[in-house]
# Entry
Amino acid sequence: MSATQAVPTGRREEAALAHKCLYYMSLMREMEDRIERKLYRQGKIVGGVYVGRGQEAISTGAALQADPGDVLFPTHRDMAAYLIRGVPAGRILAQYMGRADGVTHGRDANMHMGDLQLNVVAIISALAATVPVAAGAALALKYLGRKNVAMCWFGEGSTSVGHWHEGMNFASVQKLPVVWICNNNQYAYSTPMSLQMACANVADRGPAYNTPAEIIDGNDVLAVHQATGRALEYVRAGKGPYLLECKTFRMTGHSAHDAAHYVPPELFEEWGKLDPIARLEARMTAEGWAERNEIDAIQAAVRKEVDEAVAFAEASPYPDPATLTDGVYGDQ
Amino acid sequence: MSATQAVPTGRREEAALAHKCLYYMSLMREMEDRIERKLYRQGKIVGGVYVGRGQEAISTGAALQADPGDVLFPTHRDMAAYLIRGVPAGRILAQYMGRADGVTHGRDANMHMGDLQLNVVAIISALAATVPVAAGAALALKYLGRKNVAMCWFGEGSTSVGHWHEGMNFASVQKLPVVWICNNNQYAYSTPMSLQMACANVADRGPAYNTPAEIIDGNDVLAVHQATGRALEYVRAGKGPYLLECKTFRMTGHSAHDAAHYVPPELFEEWGKLDPIARLEARMTAEGWAERNEIDAIQAAVRKEVDEAVAFAEASPYPDPATLTDGVYGDQ
Amino acid sequence: MSTTYLEAIRQGLWEEMERDPNVFLIGEDIGVYGGAFKVTDGFYEHFGEKRVVDTPISEAAIVGAAIGASYMGLRPVAEMQFADFITCAFDQIVNFAAKSRYRWGAAVPIVVRAPSGGGIHGGPFHSQNPEMWFVRTPGLKVVAPATAYDAKGLIKSAIRDNDPVLFFEHKGLYRRIKEDLPAGEYTVPIGKAKVVRKGGHLSIVTYGAMVWTALEAADQLAGEGISAEVVDLRTLLPLDRETVCASVKKTSKVLILHEDTRTGGMAGELAASISESVFEYLDAPIVRVTAPDTPVPYSPPLEDAFLPNTAKVVEKARWLYRY
Amino acid sequence: MSTTYLEAIRQGLWEEMERDPNVFLIGEDIGVYGGAFKVTDGFYEHFGEKRVVDTPISEAAIVGAAIGASYMGLRPVAEMQFADFITCAFDQIVNFAAKSRYRWGAAVPIVVRAPSGGGIHGGPFHSQNPEMWFVRTPGLKVVAPATAYDAKGLIKSAIRDNDPVLFFEHKGLYRRIKEDLPAGEYTVPIGKAKVVRKGGHLSIVTYGAMVWTALEAADQLAGEGISAEVVDLRTLLPLDRETVCASVKKTSKVLILHEDTRTGGMAGELAASISESVFEYLDAPIVRVTAPDTPVPYSPPLEDAFLPNTAKVVEKARWLYRY
Ligand SMILES: Cc1ncc(C[n+]2csc(CCOP(=O)(O)OP(=O)(O)O)c2C)c(N)n1
Ligand SMILES: Cc1ncc(C[n+]2csc(CCOP(=O)(O)OP(=O)(O)O)c2C)c(N)n1
Ligand SMILES: [Mg+2]
Ligand SMILES: [Mg+2]
# Structure
């Protein structure tokens, strides 16, 4: 009888979930480390690089609650959502490197990628532009009688954009099935919360749309997972949208070329102690969900997977310039 | 000793204010009646006609609190703000009739008019577009060390527009001296509140900007006046913006060509009983602020003023087509 | 039974909604009220609130929601109450919708209907011709019908098209023009111009309401022995350069006419195309008749001076003929 | 001491802020951070938060607030972090700012700075050339300097101008080009093109980063005995048609070059102007070298194929010369 079998059923599910969470968070972390600290510095990524270091719990915890038929709208800091949807790590790296096997075949950069087969939609750069689009997808799901929902992420800074307001409002008036997830990492580029909004929390904006808003610990993947479950229950019941504000911190500059001198170092220190991966690992061993060597095995597997993904991406050719003008229109 | 002199000082001020309010509300009513029910039907106004019938208390009560140096941003239903600022009635009518003496000299239509000398800014059609502009004016007033504020009106429907959100947010973050005034007349064209927003009141949006928001009876001109006073005190003290939601009703179609079949007739009936002019008149006689014959005299004076204004406008020539391309640029 | 331009669009929308349950309408005051111009009058009663979605005042959300719904397989037709307000949805149209297919292969089969154009004394914000903001944006299609027949046929094609189509309906034509439409169902292809009057001395290339001005001018010119060919572009993007160039090849002289302001207008693109492709056939300068570079003024005498008209076209055409 | 294009803009902004206390900056991350491209680095420290206003992510509010502040007598300089996001402020620019003076006489002396252009592998949303959305909008001025000298002189003129000026800074030039600037203060007039290289066989008309491409091409062509004149528009609206037409009159052949996509691009307006005004002087078709009609792709080989370059210009110029 193995250790896992000794765990009662409920605990077994928790343990399995924790394993999954750890795997995806670690995979995202490793992917982004490789991108930002290696490939970018090697000049293999010529465009912008934005990572979600320290925020992995949010896309992981939330996306793991989604059904495959639920439509995801991740931001530039939600790579785990793609991984969970089954977008191959190698294709994501090829995407960053502008290769033919990238998710957009070299047409667009970094996290600007999507796949309608997998129900994951590509952002555009303009922040919050996906918010009304997610509302529209939710409208369609309702229209078509599907039981699915849209799940749309945005940063706290993005809530200042007019499109955000219009999308939130429209979705609430129409009682659309959408879960809004705010990655509140307290900075938008160099702009702190205090220069972004006069209210203390993004959740304070829920009442403007009569949308229930919950504040959660965005560095606790299981808390995010549970809260998303509550939100989904509400939303699937046809009660309208639900807003989750996940408090977290951007453990990096805005992008690979930003050293974040404007962030008080204490903040990095303080939040570093709340690292969602370290926290989950500690919890897993404390709860008896995993032995240390199992955790090490997960991390080793992740590193291997990323090694292979890098190899795949580096082997991928650049797109053929002859394809430059293809696909602007469908009837081309 | 006249009746007015018998009134103690405080009461005398109230009486004088009531007279002023009655005069401007009546002038606005008479102007708009003449525009919508006479000139428009006579084909003398070829563009759109939007009136503020039933809502006169809001622009009147609020604008009467403003100092001449305060900058006003009225909507298409706030004619009293112009009259109070001293824009001549004849020029407003000439504006509607596209004449050379119109406030914009025939360049723009109806309430699309402004005069920077008088600190009143012209709206554009796109709703809520003045909201960030008013924030900018307030920023400048603060920058220049003036003690003045911006006062910006909008309909409840306009709060759905992204620009509204961006302007409200920016003003609150910067603690700008601006009083926001919502004419909540419960319809936006044919769209009722229930299809416009999921919250019950526009004031419910105040917390999203940490902006104090007060709901007031928009058909009680003295209540509007008092509330504006409170708002101005707060705003002039440098505490940031303040939002007044004035509940009222649009006692007309959206525009002169809209019969408003979509409005349940009971609503017109119910709100008709709350007519701000009739209410003020009743209060004035009840409080002993005016005799009936004084009120009649005000109404007669108003009619005469509008008669003269119509004559002025009708006598005004059309703009000279030779001026068509003038003034697109300053250095032309 | 003669059908107005407005009624033709109504019919096209109605037929497409009957044909395909995934077609739906979204916009401000389009439901119970039937739309500011009553184009969708009766749709709400017939198709219900699911398929006729009244929205808050949120042009960006209207277009954004249309995009999202189209990703899920629906065929949204969004209405801008006036074309002038399309500026509020600009980012959604030019950045989200236009680039989606090219970037990641996600088609955006939406239609954005926008009543545009002047002549109704609507002033600077109810009279604009915003087409060139979009003609310069790859990934969009831009349609501007002049006749009831084309309006119906093109709205149907737009709905069936797999790319985002901006449909500029000239509000001055809504109730002004009428014609008998075929009994059966038909479509008009996007991307094809039409020679609406044959002529030999010069070509007038135009679109939208100005097609009627061109035809009136051609009539008048005919009386003077000048034979003008009139080309109605019908679609502005993708542009049917072939039909335009073929006409110029034949007549060797071309007058380009549009209601839109001059600088950066459609005439520029056409002039470039013509002088690039059929330069050797040109016997005279390419002539433009357009509105001047100002906002659209409200007062009737100003707006009358602003808009191109038959007299201005005839005068320029005469000059061109004599050149 | 050589000054970069970026540093030239910095200097212009700095000098104007020193000169006029009513000039202030407004935008995202322009304060403590010094701007995404560091154009305003050090401004916050020197001028303080009153004159360097960091905003929420709200392009419409940034431009709207600039308009409102300008009504009160200030001289706001707004920054779009990337020109691509100007679409979010579109209504404020084309409807509020552009039409204000014409409608009711209220001047809007604002500047909107927008880093535009490709070549840095920024992909579809960090590489666009949005100028034509504005060149077609009467009431705006549109400036696009190619040199450090012009960038400094034009930003100063833009700030002093009494109308809304869109200032497109080519981000690919920021640190790529350098030149010695005069010690004293100077301005460059808005609305004046410049012949930056004289030549007799053909004219290349262009602006922005492509001026350098044109000059390189002209160098190469000179080696083949082809003498190309290069005209740098510098201002796109109001357009200096005189300088362009004078060059064409002299050379009788013209190639128009822009980094922007083709359809609806600046080349169209220029072609129309040329074939309207100096048709009789033309000895060859008007030739365009532009980007193709697609979004700007990210991957280097795709973007390289997308952008016009010296080889493409030389090839077309040779063809034109031989025509
Ligand atoms: C409309 C718009 N304006 C500006 C930018 C430039 N920009 C990119 S990311 C960013 C900060 C975003 O902050 P937030 O929404 O909090 O997300 P985070 O990056 O912190 O996850 C900015 C200003 C943009 N992409 N879109
Ligand atoms: C951005 C925009 N969209 C649509 C319109 C068309 N429109 C004009 S007034 C109006 C209703 C406005 O409602 P509200 O803000 O409540 O003001 P009210 O007219 O009720 O005073 C609409 C939809 C517009 N002017 N601007
Ligand atoms: Mg953030
Ligand atoms: Mg209303």
